[in-house]
Amino acid sequence: MNEPEHDGITDETTESQVKRADRSWVVFAIAGLAVGLAASLAVGWAAFPKLLYSELRQPLDFNHKLHVEQVGDCSGCHSFDGEGRFSGIPGLDNCVQCHSEILGTDPNEANLVADYITPSKPIPWLVYSRQPQCAFFSHSAHVFSEKMQKMAGMKPGEAGEDPGAYSPAVCVNCHGKHGETEHSRPFYRNRITGESRDIYGKNLTGFADRPWDRMKMDTCADCHAKVKNEKEACFVCHK
Amino acid sequence: MKLSRRNFLAIGAGVAAGGAVGTMLSPLPWKLTDDLSIWTQNWPGTPTVAGGVETALDTVCRLCTGSCGLRVRKIDERLAGVAGTPGHPVNDGGLCPLGASALALLYGPTRITGPLVNTGKRGEGKWKAVTWKEAVDLTAKKLSGLRAKGDAHKAGVITGQRLNPASRMFERFLQAFGSMNVFFPVTSFDTYAKAIKYMHGVEAQPGFDIENSDFVLSFGSDLLEGFGSPVASIKAVSALRDRGGALAQVSPRLSNTAAKADRWIAAKPGSEAALALGIAHVLVKEKLADPGVIAAARGFLDAAGPDGKPVKGFSGIVLSDYTPEKTAKLTGLTAKAVTELARAFGKAEKPLAVWGRGRGDGAGLLSECMAVHSLNILKGRVNAQGGLFLRREDSLAGWSAPFLDQAAIKGLSKGRADFAGSRRFPLAESVLSNLPALLTETRGGGLSALLVVDSDPFHDLPDSNKAREVLGKIPFIASFATHLNDTAMMSDVVFPANFFLEDWQYAPTPPGSVKRQVSLSKPVVSPVFNSKPAGQAIMEIAKAVGGTVGQSFAWTNFSAALAQALGNDMEALKNDGHVSADAIVEPGVGVDFSPAVTHRFIPGSLVLGPTHKSPDLPGKADEDTLLVVPVESLRLAVGPLAASSFMVKALSDTVLKKNGLWVEVNPETAKKLGLAEGSDAELSTSKGSASVMIHLANGIMPGVVGVPRGLGHKGYDAFLDNRGVNYSALATPAIDPVTGQDAAYGVRAILSPWPVAEV
């Protein structure tokens, strides 16, 4: 008597035929696996970084090399006040000292004078190395630290007599050769955290060997541990 | 191979598995987790601090007449912190809670951000934002209309402080406009100045040298709760104690001042004058008074009167009428207590009697002041270190007289609506505290327009419900204020005034100060909102009214007028913020004791009778009647600005809980009335009643109920609006017949359990 078909298996089906029918799903599964793997890797490694960051431009395209030639090295504009407070990116008062009138022909300078100096509007610079609010960082403690100066390869007395003076070597040690750039590089802003890409680092694996490529808590902590020969306490930076 | 259902599912499973593995092998989940955790720390509500350049600027606080030095911390252009200026002659780094709230008040939510016009019923809070020009033109139009009708004298100004150029601008406006009706508060320091005038024959303000005294006897002055210049008073008491001096506080309740005093004398409220004269009795009798002073004094010994009959002098009166036993009866103390206190005062080397009830912002009773001052005279403490200094009144360099046209002259001839300076109140310059009652008396219907600056009369005037009613009938009201206080809420036009941190504001010498200390606040931040100096606003209104009124304001702006008013002091004030100098006035030859015990010093005086008597408080005094007294606290403010939200939050639950006010009652009294801690009760006076809760306090006299001042507002925001009870709504003015000012020391009340609903 003929029974209803089950997967095409009848009394006449041979063994080999049955086995082949059972395994076809594996092929599909493997195919799916490969597709899934490839797609997710592509998303994770290529699409995700692209989508995660928005590319922004500085309000003015700043030429550091030119200004270093004209003003002197870093300490000419990035200064410390009498109480040790660091100016960071200096305010308009600093620019006005030279740019109260237009000095050259660059359209960026024209924008500086027209959009910022004349209406006394502070320039909304995007700070590549801005740490989050939870972290306390003192430039004084690092720039004037003897250990840091030694690490930067400074010779004793190289900075000069003035208490606020420091050598560019110290800056380069952490910030790289920013002073030699002729254009402002784009600012990559993490869409989720709002932070600069430089904090986590461009390399999404988190590997970086130069301080200006990554400065997360572990980066600071590693150097602190090396210098202090012991783990640093939390409250030193998280006040 | 067929794409069977199984195979289809297999693809799906494979993709999922591959996707999972691939995702884990990519940075996505790890980076995403890190980013999400950072994201949770940066939600919009999380407060962050903007960076910037930090600077410190010194100015002067103008939130009360204390004039403390204030140091503000700025980050770029935003004010970030306030503290007292270290080394400042008034406060030396100290600050009171109101001053410490300055930034909250500067940036705060009830700040008036631009000119407003009322579009609903008064008090509803329906505002339309208008431009400065629209507000000025509207006000000028209303005022000009009044002038055209010949009713210029029906315009009035209520100002919180008379002696500053901004207020003087308003006075000048009214002069040129044609009205005498500038009303300003009279403080106990002004009353003391009157005592000095009639007893010493000179014009001077009192200066209490508390820190250099060795025995301070305070007749109800809340030295630690805001008397005079609050921080200066607190520091002076500390200095007094550090030097080994003693403080004796006369007070019906255990205030902070009484608690920190060496002696606490709980005399019956209103009997302070009797106590002072009782002490004078002991000083005279036991020869503890300065013989040199007595020898040169007039009115001290009995003398022959105009009709030949002997008239008792000060000595005769205190010796016969104020024996320790008689004084004990009047004050509720024991004769022994009175004598001991008098001896302690008399035997001290540098005793000082301080007078000015509470914070000293009410006028008080002149005869009471004179009785207390006579103690300072008897001990030779006038112009002596650690004693009572006669300090020359501050004066401003004059402006040229305003132009007066016919309408102005006519209006000025109509006199004042409060009868100040008339035969009725010959000694008064302004009777603000009783204004509502007086306005209802004026023939011709009182005021038709009212400008209010630096003041909150709708809340602060005693019998405030009547004040709201009477003032509320005035057809046009314009307020010049920083915040939406009760008066601004009832105004037709509101002009936003600069906060002191945004403004050049002159401050006269703090009351009670020994030296002359005038100050000038300076703008430490540009105006945060669309506000202008109040003096500037009235100038623009004057120019819009035009004619001689406009011509009387020829300055380009208010700053020019201010500079002119400050005269020679301007440079020093601009640079240092304050000018400090000795300003001692030498008294006339011999002192006159008679004003302390008679009223003969007032020409044609209508008043007779024993002078220790306090003005009768309205209401009957029987065994069921209690006396409500106002309680002062540094956590509450009275005046154009009420307490900040910080201060209100600092009130204990036994003062204000949710919206309910707690009142202090002695357990004995409460028991008699069937009340316990936390009971609901109804407190009613002849002027109003309120539901309150009972807080039992051993530190308040039986029969006396303590009610804090400064609550019960109908304005501001949720922290103040309709919270608690307004003491002024329960209070009744009790007029000093000599000065015409309110000298009430309390109000008679009935306290009964809140009626329980019948089932």
Lay out the secondary structure.
The complex is a heterodimer of chains A (239) and B (759).
Chain A: H1 15-52, E1 53-56, H2 64-71, H3 92-99, H4 107-117, H5 139-143, H6 146-151, H7 168-175, E2 187-190, H8 197-200, H9 217-228
Antiparallel strand pairs in A: 1-2
Helix pairs in contact in A: 3-4
Chain B: H1 5-25, H2 28-40, E1 54-60, E2 69-75, E3 78-84, H3 97-100, H4 102-107, E4 116-118, E5 127-129, H5 132-148, E6 155-159, H6 165-177, E7 182-183, H7 188-200, E8 205-208, E9 215-221, H8 230-242, E10 246-250, H9 256-259, E11 263-265, H10 272-285, H11 291-296, E12 303-304, E13 310-311, H12 314-321, H13 324-331, H14 335-347, E14 351-358, H15 366-378, E15 388-391, H16 406-412, H17 435-441, E16 449-453, H18 457-460, H19 464-472, E17 476-481, H20 486-489, E18 493-496, E19 505-507, E20 516-521, H21 534-545, H22 547-551, H23 558-566, H24 569-576, E21 578-581, E22 626-631, H25 645-649, E23 656-657, E24 660-665, H26 667-673, E25 680-684, E26 689-696, E27 704-708, H27 727-730, E28 747-753
Parallel strand pairs in B: 6-7, 6-16, 9-10, 9-14, 10-11, 16-17, 17-18, 22-27, 24-26
Antiparallel strand pairs in B: 1-2, 2-3, 4-5, 4-18, 8-15, 12-13, 19-20, 20-21, 22-28, 23-24, 24-27, 25-26, 25-28
Helix pairs in contact in B: 5-21, 6-21, 7-15, 10-13, 10-14, 10-15, 13-14, 17-19
Which spans of chain B of ≥5 residues are poorly predicted at pLDDT below 50? 604-608
Low-confidence segments of chain A, ≥5 residues, pLDDT <50? none
- Overall residue-averaged pLDDT value of chain B: 92
> Treating each run of at least 4 consecutive H or I residues as one helix, how many helices of chain B?
27
Oligomer: heterodimer
| Rg measurement of chain B, Å | 30 Å
Instruction: Give the chain pair forming the largest contact, with residue counts.
Output: A-B, 40 and 42 residues
In sequence order, what are the helices and strands of chain A, one letter per element?
A: HEHHHHHHEHH
Provide the β-strand percentage band of chain B: 15-25%
Question: Main sheet of chain B?
Answer: 7 strands, mixed
Count of alpha and pi helical runs of chain A: 9
- How would a crystallographer describe the biggest sheet of chain A? 2 strands, antiparallel
